[in-house]
């Protein structure tokens, strides 16, 4: 049975009106609450007037429903219609139907004019075209079916499933949704950009939900684009989502060496596939920076036109978003009355209006009980930076504050055990007793407000900030508290905690409406500079620590695994070299760390991609004792002796490109390797474009032709069939709301 709880009372009435119109083959008019004597629906048959009443009472008791129905009798006596239908989302029993019918028998032919949940559900089944005009309903139904049939996927993506189920009831289908659907339908790829809080993530989740309901398997990328590459299967419908793929608050966070190439290759592959979709989201100003840095990304968009920029909502959309959040919120009648009698006006017309703030002001962390609600709401819109400050300072104890703060030094989705270790270390540094005991309690208090708890693709519990604005708040708090910054530096258990703080101060970014707040950035940068020696000491102390970052990688004998980056030491040395340059120190200060990396290369260990990025810095650095030559020799020996996988060949080809490329002696070896790859992969190996370049450089004409044929075949990748198709009939707000429309809409909150 369909889940009507995802609909507000307005949406339920719209559905019922469409259903009755289709069933009776008449035009059914809708009226706002309180208008025309309380009529919800009206239609004409043979010159006679019939009316209908809708009661969306899923969470109420039958006695409440019956009491509300009794109030309609006086209205009907006054209107005296030729017929009457009473429709509710309440699941009525036959006896309950009879009780309602007895109230209205004067205007009803039979008890069947009283329609409960099962009756409405049956009508939806009969009129599929009507269901298509109400995406939230059919998407939620399709989701239920998909999760039921794919319990393994439901368990693996339980956090995503929960987020979708929480956000869908409050969502309003608006013009941006339709535009995004069209881009995804025609291009297979949609990049949603826009300012913070505009609703990019929620829109992405709705698109994801729609395609899950159509049978697409969801793949959520949490770290880097390799996760998508490793998850692609040829004959399966899949939809990939990478939220904030360029970083949550600043561009420096994402896209490691050559990740732009892998991203562009993925977009190219999915845009030409018949059974794959890709959704990306990013803040508008971060995308602008990325386009300047990565020409491939800018060129790809100009050719495929897959970027959708969310901007301001229409007034009607803003009103409906606010109304849906209020309708589904646990809010007092006092607050609803204040909003319904005019308090909504300054909210929906406020220049700082955005869905994130609406969600916060209708959520459990806000005062939803006492009088003065519209004023509190407006004050939050006037000063959005106070959202986290008030809750942080007034409602959290010290241990809880430290957990929220230390989280911004870890990857944006941190493994629970890593967070515990970093938290305990910081608490111990600050003299807090028994932090292990407070950790679990703090998580319970913070979940749903400051943090979100989920699971990664390996099934491990993870913790992240509830949204990027929490991260921004935490960074601002750290930058303003020198003692706290010093404690974080001293307590760091992972090298990446220190690099994260440094990057936030140096390249980074505290953004307000897309503009860098340079003063705050300089404050943190100055604070780090004053603690340079302390910072450098902690970096060397934690150099050998394990990494809190996770990547999907392939390991011989184990296959695909989700583990810390194999190139973590290369990344750390590269970062140290950047720090030394900014601090005016000699590279020789980290010679022991460089020797560790070289030793690993000599043992065929490390991350090849990160090694290629690092080798140029080592060769140009002010190292003594032939460090540069030793590093080059070790890396060359490792790369040329481990040509086992596609990426190995690509990396070695890149390494040798500066010295003329791969020698002819590698031609037979590569030709034999490609024979094995074509046998191993169906229908063709990955990374064909790069492999073609290598074959061409080695003058393997027959192999080039073979790869070209495979590329052409790949572009004709077949699609599979599925019982559900995407909706092409979604209503939009073709006109903006009048003052009367808005008064009637929010008047429902008072009448209810």
UniProtKB/TrEMBL annotation:
CDD domains named among the record's database cross-references: AAA
InterPro entries, alphabetized: nSTAND3 (IPR049050), P-loop_NTPase (IPR027417)
Region (Disordered): 710-741
Top-level division of the source organism's lineage: Bacteria
Signal peptide boundaries: none
Domain Novel STAND NTPase: 171-328
Name of the protein: Novel STAND NTPase 3 domain-containing protein
């Amino acid at each position: 049975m369909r889940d009507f709880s995802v609909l507000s009372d307005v949406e339920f009435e719209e559905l019922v009106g469409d259903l009755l119109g289709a069933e009776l083959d008449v035009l059914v008019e809708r009226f706002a609450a309180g208008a025309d004597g309380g009529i919800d629906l009206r239609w004409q048959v043979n010159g006679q007037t019939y009316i209908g009443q809708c009661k969306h009472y899923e969470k109420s008791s039958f006695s409440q429903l019956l009491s509300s129905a009794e109030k309609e009798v006086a209205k009907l006596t006054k209107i005296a219609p030729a017929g009457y239908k009473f429709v509710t989302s309440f699941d009525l029993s036959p006896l309950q139907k009879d009780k309602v019918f007895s109230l209205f028998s004067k205007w009803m032919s039979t008890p069947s004019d009283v329609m409960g949940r099962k009756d409405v559900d049956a009508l939806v089944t009969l009129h599929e075209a009507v269901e298509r005009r109400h995406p939230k309903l059919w998407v939620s139904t399709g989701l239920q079916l998909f999760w039921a049939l794919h319990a393994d996927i439901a368990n693996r993506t339980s956090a995503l499933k929960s987020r979708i189920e929480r956000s869908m009831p409050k969502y309003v289908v608006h013009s941006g949704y339709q535009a995004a659907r069209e881009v995804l339908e025609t291009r297979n790829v949609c990049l949603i950009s826009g300012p913070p809080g505009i609703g990019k993530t929620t829109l992405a989740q709705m698109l994801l939900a729609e395609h899950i309901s159509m049978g697409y398997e969801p793949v959520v990328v949490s770290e880097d684009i390799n996760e998508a590459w490793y998850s692609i299967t040829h004959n399966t419908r899949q939809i990939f989502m990478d939220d904030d793929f360029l970083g949550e608050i600043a561009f420096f966070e994402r896209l490691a060496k050559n990740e732009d190439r892998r991203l562009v290759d993925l977009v190219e592959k999915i845009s030409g596939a018949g059974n794959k979709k890709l959704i990306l989201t990013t803040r508008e100003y971060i995308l602008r920076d990325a386009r300047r840095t990565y020409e491939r990304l800018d060129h790809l968009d100009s050719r495929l036109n897959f970027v959708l920029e969310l901007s301001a909502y229409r007034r009607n959309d803003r009103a409906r978003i606010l109304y849906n959040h209020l309708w589904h919120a646990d809010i007092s009648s006092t607050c609803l009355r204040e909003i319904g009698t005019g308090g909504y006006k300054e909210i929906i017309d406020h220049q700082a209006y955005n869905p994130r703030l609406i969600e916060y002001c209708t959520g459990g962390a806000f005062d939803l009980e006492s009088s003065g609600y519209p004023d509190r709401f407006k004050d939050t819109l006037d000063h959005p930076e106070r959202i986290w400050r008030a809750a942080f300072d007034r409602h959290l104890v010290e241990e809880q504050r430290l957990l929220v703060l230390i989280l911004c030094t870890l990857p944006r989705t941190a493994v629970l055990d890593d967070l515990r270790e970093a938290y305990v270390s910081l608490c111990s540094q600050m003299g807090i007793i028994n932090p292990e005991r407070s950790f679990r309690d703090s998580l319970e208090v913070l979940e749903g407000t400051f943090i979100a708890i989920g699971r990664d693709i390996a099934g491990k519990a993870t913790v992240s900030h509830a949204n990027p604005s929490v991260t921004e708040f935490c960074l601002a708090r750290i930058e303003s508290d020198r003692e706290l910054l010093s404690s974080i530096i001293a307590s760091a258990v992972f090298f990446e905690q220190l690099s994260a703080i440094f990057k936030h101060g140096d390249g980074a970014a505290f953004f307000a409406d897309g503009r860098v707040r340079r003063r705050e950035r300089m404050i943190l940068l100055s604070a780090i500079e004053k603690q340079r020696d302390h910072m450098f000491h902690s970096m060397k102390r934690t150099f050998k620590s394990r990494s809190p970052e996770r990547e999907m990688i392939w390991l011989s004998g184990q296959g695909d695994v989700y583990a810390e980056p194999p190139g973590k030491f290369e990344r750390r040395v590269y970062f140290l070299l950047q720090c030394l340059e900014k601090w005016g120190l000699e590279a020789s200060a980290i010679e022991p760390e460089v020797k560790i990396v070289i030793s690993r290369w000599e043992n065929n260990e490390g991350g090849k991609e990160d090694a290629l990025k690092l080798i140029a810095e080592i060769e140009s650095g002010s190292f003594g004792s032939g460090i540069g030559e030793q590093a080059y020799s070790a890396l060359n020996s490792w790369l040329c002796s481990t040509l086992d996988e596609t990426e190995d060949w690509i990396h070695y080809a890149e390494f040798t490109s500066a010295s003329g490329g791969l020698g002819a002696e590698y031609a037979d070896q590569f030709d034999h390797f490609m024979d094995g790859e074509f046998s191993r992969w169906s229908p063709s190996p990955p990374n064909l474009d790069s492999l073609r370049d290598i074959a061409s450089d080695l003058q393997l004409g027959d192999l080039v032709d073979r790869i070209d044929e495979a590329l052409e075949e790949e572009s004709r990748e077949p699609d599979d069939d599925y019982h559900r198709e995407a909706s092409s009939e979604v209503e939009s707000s073709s006109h903006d709301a009048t003052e009367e429309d808005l008064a009637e809409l929010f008047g429902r909150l008072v009448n209810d």
